[in-house]
Every structure is written in structure tokens, then in C-alpha cells.
Specification:
By secondary structure, this protein is α/β, with parallel strands linked by helices. The protein is built from eight helices and eleven strands. It has two domains: 123 residues, Rossmann fold; 100 residues, Orthogonal Bundle (Arc Repressor Mutant, subunit A). 41% of the residues lie in helices and 20% in strands. The strands form three sheets. Strands 2-1-3-4-5 form a five-stranded parallel β-sheet, with helices on both faces. The chain has a four-stranded antiparallel β-sheet with strand order 6-7-8-9, covered by helices on one side. The protein is globular and about 50 Å long.
Length: 229
């Protein structure tokens, strides 16, 4: 059964091009020109993945609102921002709102397709049978890689798909420093340093909401990150 992708993009030429390109890859694509049309559709049925532009017609930040609505409806639905806005502020805003990836429109089509495929590979793990190796327990952290659940001090921590696999890559080898490249390899993604830093900050903040003293995700300057108990 083909995966359903929602494309929220106000530029008709771009919208048509990407609908055609994604359709050739076997995806079922539903395209929306503005926030209202997208939100009406999502209220009836969620896609398997969403690709969202930030500026939508007369709403300069309409895509952010779409992302927030989707994330409130599903914690694990993969969301990609695909925008011409290439700056750290918008990138950080997008990731804080729960997006799994932030891409600029100058990337190649094969690059976009690779990012989509990586997110689908990771969500597919949710449906596989569970084995003991799926569980990570270190200190007060419990992670289940099949159900994609995380708990800290018996409190659930809601992470996005990307946040989960980045944390999994660190916690799986407690005490070992993971470089940014190793984080990308183990979480099956290709992002820049700014995006990784933003995800790590977001993960820390989510843990600190339930434990203000949380400091287990440690930055090792010039090397990467590690989990410390």
C-alpha cells in the first residue's frame, strides 16, 4: 500500500512539480495551497508524512501553524519543513514546533527523496515484533525502539521521530561519545550541525519539563555528545 504524503505549498508550479516527482516514486500525494485547506483535510484523515512550506499565501508563518496542529494530533507523524527561508531562527523555530527535518528548496530532488525514505524507514520499525534488544534501560531512562516510547523517572517523554533516534543513538552506548556523523549514521539522517544542535537542545528541554535537574545528555565540545548516568 502506497504511503500518503501531504504537500502544503502555495506556489502552484512547485506544487505541481513535486506532486509529479513524488508520484513517480510511488507515493500518493495530496497537495494543499494554504493552511485552511490543509487543516480541513488533516481533521478528516492524517497523512503518513507531511511536507510543509512556512510562508503560505497571505500567512507569513502559516506553515508553523500547520505543523503545530499536526503535532498535536500525532506525536510520531514525520513532518518536514521545505522552505526558501534559510536562516537559523526559522530552522530552530521549526524544530521546536516538532518538525523532524528542515530542508531548503535549493536541495536536489534525490536529497529530498532520501530524507523522506529515511523517515519512513524509521517509522516502519514501530510495526515490527518486539524483542528484548528493543529496550534500553540506563539509570532512570527506559526507551522502547519498537513502540518509540521514552520514559524518565516513570514519566513519558514525547519525542518526534528524529529526536527519538538521536537520543537512542546516544543512550544505546551510555558513556561513549557519539560524533555528529555517528548520530546521523545511527539515526539514518543527513542534517547539518545547526539542525543537530537544535534537536539536542529540544530533547534536553523535554526532559527538563519533568526533571529540572536533568543533565544526562552531555556535550563534549569538539567531539559530539554522550549519555552520562
Amino acid at each position: 500500500m502506497s504511503k500518503r504524503i501531504a504537500l502544503v505549498e502555495d506556489d502552484q508550479a512547485l506544487r505541481d512539480n513535486y506532486v509529479a516527482a513524488l508520484g513517480k516514486q510511488g507515493y500518493e500525494v495530496q497537495a494543499y495551497a494554504n493552511r485552511q485547506l490543509a487543516e480541513q483535510a488533516f481533521a478528516k484523515r492524517l497523512p503518513d508524512l507531511a511536507i510543509i512550506d512556512i510562508g503560505l499565501q497571505d500567512e507569513i508563518d502559516g506553515g508553523f501553524a500547520v505543523c503545530q496542529q499536526l503535532r498535536s494530533m500525532s506525536k510520531t507523524l514525520p513532518i518536514i519543513f521545505f522552505t526558501a527561508r534559510d536562516n537559523d531562527y526559522d530552522t530552530i523555530c521549526g524544530l521546536r514546533m516538532g518538525a523532524d527535518d528542515y530542508l531548503t528548496k535549493d536541495i536536489s530532488l534525490p536529497h529530498l527523496l532520501a530524507r523522506i525514505a529515511a523517515l519512513f524507514r524509521r517509522t516502519a520499525l514501530l510495526n515490527q515484533p518486539q524483542t528484548p534488544s528493543d529496550l534500553i534501560q540506563t539509570g532512570e531512562l527506559i526507551m522502547d525502539s519498537k513502540r518509540m516510547t521514552v520514559s524518565w523517572q516513570k514519566h513519558n517523554i514525547e519525542l518526534t521521530v528524529t529526536e527519538f533516534w538521536m537520543l537512542h543513538a546516544i543512550a544505546k552506548y551510555s558513556g561513549h561519545v557519539k560524533s555528529r556523523q555517528q548520530l546521523m549514521d545511527e539515526s539514518k539522517m543527513v542534517v547539518d550541525d545547526t539542525t543537530i544542535t537544535s534537536h539536542i537542545k529540544r530533547i534536553r528541554k523535554k526532559f527538563m519539563l519533568v526533571d529540572a535537574e536533568f543533565d544526562c545528555v552531555e556535550t563534549v565540545y569538539g567531539m559530539g555528545y554522550r549519555w552520562k548516568n
